[in-house]
Protein backbone atom coordinates (compact mmCIF):
# COMPACT_ATOMS: atom_id res chain seq x y z
CA UNK A 1 0.00 0.00 0.00
CA UNK A 2 1.35 3.40 -1.01
CA UNK A 3 1.61 6.03 1.65
CA UNK A 4 -0.48 9.17 1.35
CA UNK A 5 1.47 12.39 0.99
CA UNK A 6 -1.34 14.94 0.68
CA UNK A 7 -1.81 15.59 4.40
CA UNK A 8 0.30 16.07 7.49
CA UNK A 9 -1.10 14.05 10.38
CA UNK A 10 -0.75 14.90 14.07
CA UNK A 11 -1.76 12.52 16.88
CA UNK A 12 -2.01 14.15 20.30
CA UNK A 13 -2.08 12.48 23.72
CA UNK A 14 -2.84 14.30 26.96
CA UNK A 15 -1.05 11.73 29.09
CA UNK A 16 2.35 10.04 28.98
CA UNK A 17 2.68 6.26 28.59
CA UNK A 18 3.46 5.21 32.12
CA UNK A 19 4.24 1.52 31.69
CA UNK A 20 5.72 -0.89 29.16
CA UNK A 21 2.39 -1.96 27.55
CA UNK A 22 1.43 1.68 26.98
CA UNK A 23 4.78 2.41 25.35
CA UNK A 24 4.46 -0.68 23.18
CA UNK A 25 1.01 0.55 22.16
CA UNK A 26 2.50 3.91 21.20
CA UNK A 27 5.24 2.27 19.12
CA UNK A 28 2.64 0.13 17.34
CA UNK A 29 0.59 3.21 16.53
CA UNK A 30 3.68 4.95 15.17
CA UNK A 31 4.36 1.96 12.92
CA UNK A 32 0.80 2.00 11.58
CA UNK A 33 0.98 5.73 10.91
CA UNK A 34 4.30 5.34 9.12
CA UNK A 35 2.80 2.67 6.86
CA UNK A 36 -0.19 4.80 5.87
CA UNK A 37 1.16 8.36 5.86
CA UNK A 38 4.46 9.88 4.82
CA UNK A 39 4.16 13.00 6.97
CA UNK A 40 3.06 12.45 10.54
CA UNK A 41 3.90 13.34 14.12
CA UNK A 42 2.93 12.26 17.63
CA UNK A 43 2.55 14.91 20.33
CA UNK A 44 2.53 13.98 24.02
CA UNK A 45 1.52 16.64 26.56
CA UNK A 46 2.46 15.77 30.12
CA UNK A 47 3.76 17.32 33.31
CA UNK A 48 7.21 18.87 33.03
CA UNK A 49 8.48 16.49 35.71
CA UNK A 50 7.60 13.49 33.53
CA UNK A 51 9.28 14.57 30.28
CA UNK A 52 12.71 13.13 31.15
CA UNK A 53 11.17 9.66 31.49
CA UNK A 54 10.22 9.73 27.80
CA UNK A 55 13.78 10.04 26.47
CA UNK A 56 13.88 6.36 25.38
CA UNK A 57 10.75 6.96 23.27
CA UNK A 58 12.31 10.07 21.76
CA UNK A 59 15.27 7.95 20.68
CA UNK A 60 13.02 5.30 19.08
CA UNK A 61 10.42 7.56 17.44
CA UNK A 62 11.89 10.35 15.31
CA UNK A 63 8.53 12.08 14.80
CA UNK A 64 7.69 12.32 18.50
CA UNK A 65 7.30 15.63 20.32
CA UNK A 66 6.97 15.85 24.11
CA UNK A 67 5.54 19.00 25.67
CA UNK A 68 5.97 19.66 29.38
CA UNK A 69 3.35 21.68 31.22
CA UNK A 70 2.78 22.98 34.71
CA UNK A 71 1.87 20.36 37.26
CA UNK A 72 -1.54 21.94 37.81
CA UNK A 73 -2.60 21.51 34.16
CA UNK A 74 -5.58 19.13 34.13
CA UNK A 75 -6.36 16.53 31.48
CA UNK A 76 -8.72 18.51 29.24
CA UNK A 77 -6.51 21.58 29.37
CA UNK A 78 -3.62 19.43 28.15
CA UNK A 79 -5.82 18.23 25.27
CA UNK A 80 -6.31 21.85 24.25
CA UNK A 81 -2.57 22.46 24.48
CA UNK A 82 -1.85 19.44 22.28
CA UNK A 83 -4.43 20.53 19.70
CA UNK A 84 -2.97 24.06 19.68
CA UNK A 85 0.62 22.87 19.26
CA UNK A 86 -0.15 20.26 16.58
CA UNK A 87 0.90 21.30 13.08
CA UNK A 88 -1.01 18.68 11.10
CA UNK A 89 -3.76 19.18 8.54
CA UNK A 90 -5.56 16.33 10.31
CA UNK A 91 -5.30 16.23 14.09
CA UNK A 92 -6.17 13.18 16.19
CA UNK A 93 -7.02 13.72 19.85
CA UNK A 94 -6.52 10.24 21.25
CA UNK A 95 -6.30 8.23 24.46
CA UNK A 96 -3.59 5.61 24.87
CA UNK A 97 -5.93 2.88 26.09
CA UNK A 98 -8.17 3.26 23.01
CA UNK A 99 -5.62 3.11 20.19
CA UNK A 100 -5.42 -0.71 20.12
CA UNK A 101 -9.19 -0.94 19.54
CA UNK A 102 -9.40 1.68 16.77
CA UNK A 103 -8.25 1.83 13.18
CA UNK A 104 -6.86 5.33 13.38
CA UNK A 105 -5.44 5.35 9.78
CA UNK A 106 -8.91 4.47 8.48
CA UNK A 107 -10.45 7.26 10.57
CA UNK A 108 -7.88 9.65 9.14
CA UNK A 109 -8.74 8.55 5.59
CA UNK A 110 -12.44 9.14 6.26
CA UNK A 111 -11.78 12.60 7.69
CA UNK A 112 -9.55 13.47 4.72
CA UNK A 113 -12.22 12.41 2.20
CA UNK A 114 -15.28 13.92 3.91
CA UNK A 115 -13.84 16.91 5.76
CA UNK A 116 -15.94 15.97 8.82
CA UNK A 117 -15.00 15.33 12.41
CA UNK A 118 -14.74 11.57 13.05
CA UNK A 119 -15.54 10.51 16.61
CA UNK A 120 -15.00 6.98 17.94
CA UNK A 121 -17.98 5.46 19.73
CA UNK A 122 -18.58 2.27 21.71
CA UNK A 123 -21.22 -0.15 20.49
CA UNK A 124 -22.85 -0.41 23.91
CA UNK A 125 -26.01 1.53 24.77
CA UNK A 126 -27.17 2.75 28.18
CA UNK A 127 -30.66 4.10 27.74
CA UNK A 128 -31.02 5.83 31.12
CA UNK A 129 -27.52 7.32 31.26
CA UNK A 130 -27.58 8.37 27.61
CA UNK A 131 -30.97 10.00 28.17
CA UNK A 132 -29.77 12.01 31.17
CA UNK A 133 -26.55 13.06 29.46
CA UNK A 134 -28.48 13.85 26.28
CA UNK A 135 -30.72 16.30 28.14
CA UNK A 136 -27.69 17.85 29.85
CA UNK A 137 -25.84 18.09 26.56
CA UNK A 138 -28.82 19.60 24.77
CA UNK A 139 -29.14 22.33 27.40
CA UNK A 140 -25.41 23.09 27.23
CA UNK A 141 -25.20 22.91 23.42
CA UNK A 142 -23.10 19.75 22.98
CA UNK A 143 -23.59 16.27 21.53
CA UNK A 144 -23.13 14.18 24.67
CA UNK A 145 -23.36 10.40 24.81
CA UNK A 146 -21.90 8.10 27.45
CA UNK A 147 -20.52 5.80 24.77
CA UNK A 148 -18.52 8.50 22.98
CA UNK A 149 -14.81 7.76 23.31
CA UNK A 150 -12.01 10.26 23.76
CA UNK A 151 -10.51 9.65 20.31
CA UNK A 152 -11.55 11.99 17.52
CA UNK A 153 -10.09 13.12 14.19
CA UNK A 154 -10.48 16.80 13.38
CA UNK A 155 -9.59 18.57 10.12
CA UNK A 156 -7.56 21.70 10.67
CA UNK A 157 -10.33 24.13 9.63
CA UNK A 158 -12.83 22.69 12.10
CA UNK A 159 -10.19 22.38 14.82
CA UNK A 160 -9.34 26.08 14.52
CA UNK A 161 -13.03 26.89 14.85
CA UNK A 162 -13.29 24.85 18.05
CA UNK A 163 -10.10 26.31 19.49
CA UNK A 164 -11.50 29.81 18.99
CA UNK A 165 -14.43 29.05 21.31
CA UNK A 166 -14.40 30.07 24.97
CA UNK A 167 -15.52 26.54 25.92
CA UNK A 168 -12.75 24.87 23.93
CA UNK A 169 -11.95 22.28 26.63
CA UNK A 170 -15.46 20.90 26.50
CA UNK A 171 -15.82 21.36 22.73
CA UNK A 172 -12.81 19.12 22.09
CA UNK A 173 -14.37 16.36 24.22
CA UNK A 174 -17.99 16.54 23.03
CA UNK A 175 -18.70 18.14 19.68
CA UNK A 176 -20.96 21.23 19.75
CA UNK A 177 -24.50 21.12 18.35
CA UNK A 178 -23.46 23.27 15.43
CA UNK A 179 -24.23 22.69 11.76
CA UNK A 180 -20.84 24.24 11.00
CA UNK A 181 -19.13 21.30 12.71
CA UNK A 182 -20.29 18.15 10.86
CA UNK A 183 -19.67 14.98 12.85
CA UNK A 184 -19.51 11.32 11.84
CA UNK A 185 -19.34 8.48 14.35
CA UNK A 186 -17.25 5.35 13.92
CA UNK A 187 -18.21 2.48 16.20
CA UNK A 188 -15.54 0.11 17.46
CA UNK A 189 -15.87 -3.59 16.54
CA UNK A 190 -18.33 -5.74 18.44
CA UNK A 191 -16.96 -6.99 21.74
CA UNK A 192 -14.04 -4.56 22.09
CA UNK A 193 -14.22 -2.88 25.48
CA UNK A 194 -11.36 -0.44 26.08
CA UNK A 195 -10.61 0.58 29.62
CA UNK A 196 -12.42 3.69 30.79
CA UNK A 197 -9.47 5.86 31.70
CA UNK A 198 -9.60 8.86 33.96
CA UNK A 199 -11.57 7.57 36.91
CA UNK A 200 -14.52 9.05 38.71
CA UNK A 201 -12.87 12.42 39.35
CA UNK A 202 -12.43 13.19 35.66
CA UNK A 203 -15.99 12.11 34.84
CA UNK A 204 -17.42 14.30 37.58
CA UNK A 205 -15.29 17.14 36.31
CA UNK A 206 -16.70 16.89 32.79
CA UNK A 207 -20.25 16.70 34.16
CA UNK A 208 -19.56 19.82 36.20
CA UNK A 209 -18.37 21.61 33.06
CA UNK A 210 -21.57 20.60 31.27
CA UNK A 211 -23.64 21.97 34.14
CA UNK A 212 -21.73 25.25 34.06
CA UNK A 213 -22.27 25.61 30.32
CA UNK A 214 -25.98 24.95 30.79
CA UNK A 215 -26.24 28.30 32.61
CA UNK A 216 -27.78 30.28 29.69
CA UNK A 217 -30.58 27.74 29.24
CA UNK A 218 -31.22 27.50 32.98
CA UNK A 219 -31.22 31.28 33.39
CA UNK A 220 -33.68 31.62 30.51
CA UNK A 221 -36.14 29.26 32.18
CA UNK A 222 -35.56 30.92 35.57
CA UNK A 223 -36.39 34.34 34.13
CA UNK A 224 -39.61 33.02 32.58
CA UNK A 225 -40.70 31.25 35.78
CA UNK A 226 -39.84 34.25 37.94
CA UNK A 227 -41.97 36.66 35.90
CA UNK A 228 -44.84 34.14 35.96
CA UNK A 229 -44.44 33.94 39.76
CA UNK A 230 -44.53 37.72 40.03
CA UNK A 231 -47.70 37.90 37.92
CA UNK A 232 -49.32 35.17 40.01
CA UNK A 233 -48.41 36.96 43.24
CA UNK A 234 -49.83 40.22 41.90
CA UNK A 235 -53.05 38.47 40.92
CA UNK A 236 -53.31 36.95 44.40
CA UNK A 237 -52.80 40.40 45.95
CA UNK A 238 -55.68 41.78 43.85
CA UNK A 239 -57.81 38.80 44.92
CA UNK A 240 -57.04 39.47 48.60
CA UNK A 241 -58.06 43.11 48.23
CA UNK A 242 -61.31 42.13 46.51
CA UNK A 243 -62.12 39.64 49.31
CA UNK A 244 -61.41 42.27 51.97
CA UNK A 245 -63.65 44.81 50.23
CA UNK A 246 -66.61 42.67 49.26
CA UNK A 247 -66.64 39.59 51.51
CA UNK A 248 -68.85 39.80 54.59
CA UNK A 249 -66.92 37.42 56.82
CA UNK A 250 -63.14 37.42 56.71
CA UNK A 251 -60.96 35.81 59.33
CA UNK A 252 -58.93 38.30 61.35
CA UNK A 253 -55.40 38.59 60.04
CA UNK A 254 -56.10 36.80 56.76
CA UNK A 255 -55.96 39.93 54.64
CA UNK A 256 -52.69 41.24 56.09
CA UNK A 257 -51.05 37.80 55.92
CA UNK A 258 -52.16 37.22 52.33
CA UNK A 259 -51.08 40.71 51.28
CA UNK A 260 -47.65 40.31 52.90
CA UNK A 261 -47.10 36.90 51.27
CA UNK A 262 -48.23 38.06 47.83
CA UNK A 263 -46.17 41.25 47.87
CA UNK A 264 -43.09 39.35 49.09
CA UNK A 265 -43.51 36.77 46.30
CA UNK A 266 -44.00 39.60 43.78
CA UNK A 267 -40.82 41.34 44.91
CA UNK A 268 -38.80 38.11 44.81
CA UNK A 269 -40.15 37.23 41.35
CA UNK A 270 -39.27 40.65 39.95
CA UNK A 271 -35.84 40.59 41.63
CA UNK A 272 -34.95 37.12 40.34
CA UNK A 273 -36.20 38.06 36.87
CA UNK A 274 -33.94 41.12 36.89
CA UNK A 275 -30.92 39.15 38.08
CA UNK A 276 -31.44 36.33 35.57
CA UNK A 277 -31.99 38.77 32.70
CA UNK A 278 -28.91 40.77 33.68
CA UNK A 279 -26.74 37.65 33.82
CA UNK A 280 -28.05 36.56 30.42
CA UNK A 281 -27.15 39.97 29.03
CA UNK A 282 -23.63 39.73 30.47
CA UNK A 283 -23.16 36.26 29.00
CA UNK A 284 -24.35 37.54 25.64
CA UNK A 285 -21.92 40.48 25.77
CA UNK A 286 -18.87 38.37 26.64
CA UNK A 287 -19.70 35.65 24.11
CA UNK A 288 -17.68 36.34 20.94
CA UNK A 289 -19.69 36.80 17.77
CA UNK A 290 -17.70 34.99 15.09
CA UNK A 291 -20.00 36.11 12.24
CA UNK A 292 -19.67 32.71 10.57
CA UNK A 293 -23.30 31.65 10.62
CA UNK A 294 -23.21 30.70 6.91
CA UNK A 295 -21.88 27.15 6.78
CA UNK A 296 -23.05 26.06 3.31
CA UNK A 297 -23.98 27.59 -0.05
CA UNK A 298 -25.67 26.10 -3.10
CA UNK A 299 -26.40 27.76 -6.43
CA UNK A 300 -25.88 27.62 -10.18
CA UNK A 301 -25.39 31.29 -11.06
CA UNK A 302 -22.13 31.96 -12.94
CA UNK A 303 -21.78 35.74 -12.98
CA UNK A 304 -18.28 35.68 -14.48
CA UNK A 305 -19.42 33.65 -17.49
CA UNK A 306 -22.16 36.20 -18.20
CA UNK A 307 -19.81 39.15 -18.28
CA UNK A 308 -16.88 37.41 -20.00
CA UNK A 309 -17.53 39.18 -23.30
CA UNK A 310 -18.06 42.55 -21.60
CA UNK A 311 -14.70 42.23 -19.88
CA UNK A 312 -13.03 41.22 -23.18
CA UNK A 313 -11.76 37.95 -21.74
CA UNK A 314 -10.47 35.59 -24.43
CA UNK A 315 -11.25 31.89 -23.93
CA UNK A 316 -10.79 28.73 -25.96
CA UNK A 317 -13.62 26.55 -27.28
CA UNK A 318 -13.77 24.48 -24.10
CA UNK A 319 -14.13 27.60 -21.96
CA UNK A 320 -10.59 27.66 -20.56
CA UNK A 321 -8.18 30.52 -20.76
CA UNK A 322 -5.74 30.27 -23.67
CA UNK A 323 -2.16 29.21 -22.89
Can you give a write-up of this model?
- The protein has 323 residues and is an alpha/beta fold.
- The protein has two domains: 4-199, Spore Coat Polysaccharide Biosynthesis Protein SpsA, Chain A, CATH 3.90.550.10; 216-286.
- It contains eleven helices and seven strands.
- It has a seven-stranded mixed beta sheet with strand order 3-2-1-4-6-5-7.
- Helix 1 (20-36) links the parallel strand 1 (4-13) and strand 2 (37-47).
- The two termini are 37 Å apart.
- The relative contact order is 0.09.
- The mean pLDDT is 82.
List the helices and strands and how they pair.
Elements: E1 4-13, H1 20-36, E2 37-47, H2 55-60, E3 64-69, H3 75-85, E4 90-94, H4 104-114, E5 117-121, H5 127-140, E6 148-155, H6 156-163, H7 168-171, E7 183-187, H8 199-213, H9 215-246, H10 254-286, H11 303-306
Parallel strand pairs: 1-2, 1-4, 2-3, 5-7
Antiparallel strand pairs: 4-6, 5-6
- Please write the CATH class name of the largest domain: Alpha Beta
CATH architecture of the largest domain: Alpha-Beta Complex
Which percent range fits the helix content? Answer: 40-55%
Uncertain runs: none
**Average pLDDT for all residues:** 82
Per CATH, what is the topology of the largest domain?
A: Spore Coat Polysaccharide Biosynthesis Protein SpsA, Chain A
How many H/I helices? Answer: 11
Distance between the termini: 37 Å
- What pattern of helices and strands is seen along the backbone? EHEHEHEHEHEHHEHHHH
* Total number of strands: 7
Count of separate structural domains: 2
Radius of gyration: 29 Å
Shape summary? elongated
| Percent range for β-strand residues | 15-25%
Structural class: alpha/beta
Q: For this structure, what is the CATH homologous superfamily of the largest domain?
A: Spore Coat Polysaccharide Biosynthesis Protein SpsA, Chain A
Amino acid sequence: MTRREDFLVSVCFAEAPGDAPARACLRALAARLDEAWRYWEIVIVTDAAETAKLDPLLADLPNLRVLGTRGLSEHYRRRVIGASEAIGDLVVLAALDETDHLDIPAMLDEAAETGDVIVARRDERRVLLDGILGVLGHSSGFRVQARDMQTAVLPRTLLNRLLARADRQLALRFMPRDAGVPVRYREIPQGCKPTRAGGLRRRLGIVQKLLVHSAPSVLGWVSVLSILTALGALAFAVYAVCVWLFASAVQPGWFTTSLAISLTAFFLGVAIFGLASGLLKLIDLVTPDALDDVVDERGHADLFARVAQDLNVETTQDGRDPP
